Amino acid sequence: MKLRPDQHAQFERDGYLFFPGLFSPAETQVLNDAVPELYSRREQYNVREKGKDAVRTNFAAHMYSEPFAKLARHPRMIEPVQDLLGEALYMHQFKINGKMAFEGDVWQWHQDYGTWLNDDMMPTERAMNVAIFLDDVTEHNGPLMFIPGSHKKGVVDARHDLTTTSYPLWTVDNDLIRQLVQRAGGPGGFDADGRHVPGGIVSPKGPAGSMILFHSCLVHASGSNLSPFNRVSVYLSLCAVSNHIRRHKRPEYIAHRDFTPIDCLPDDCLLKDYPVDLPWKDGVPATALQTSMQEIAPERKAA
Ligand code: SIN
Ligand code: MN
Prior knowledge:
This protein is α+β, with helices and mostly antiparallel strands. Helices cover about 20% and strands about 20% of the residues.
């Protein structure tokens, strides 16, 4: 799936692209059906909400679940990012975020590249997120919030928040968020006919199967989910191969260490049989849990 010139321009300006209903209900269902069993596993790769049993994030399902291994090689997800970055990609991170009914907690304001730089020593921002909704996303179940154009600020100040939620994140403080939102259009409001006029925060909403692609420096967040409806979404964090991480401070199920370029499967891969490798099918290897503050030796950098 190649992007049109106007989509390139829109991405440049706003830092994200939204594709409502890009995947069919049949394709989304194949993925959705696999989630409850994955979430039921008592494994380190399932991070639960603070003080709760609900899963906040499942990591690395593409290493042990067939439908997600196919999604990780899906041309509709990989090719637009390849097009934008102009280079082969590897999978830096793969997660299925729950944001479960009544239980899903907030994601504080942050840039993903802030965490990838500070924790993983990813050299530059040549990496991107591409997300697919497995449930309908509405204003009620904690949609993502973006500050359009905020990616143009590059890496902004962040602090390591280890306490707000169950998952450590490099987050942006409220004063800077206020400034960025003001610069992006302020509070928005309503016109004389009562129609909503968007301001400096946008929330792409749409049916299950919708896809969002966003820049690694785009500032984003999401509120809690107090509704009775799950908001499960899958995020592929794709990194240009030449920009691979230089440190293994986090376990491999969170920040991957295999920099092999992704080879796409055919477009119908979710609905047909195609062989995929599942290297962690029988468990996560002990080496993947080892971490280090050492910068990766220069000879590995050339790989
Ligand atoms: C994220 O920013 O990584 C996740 C946000 C969300 O799922 O709401
Ligand atoms: Mn994020």
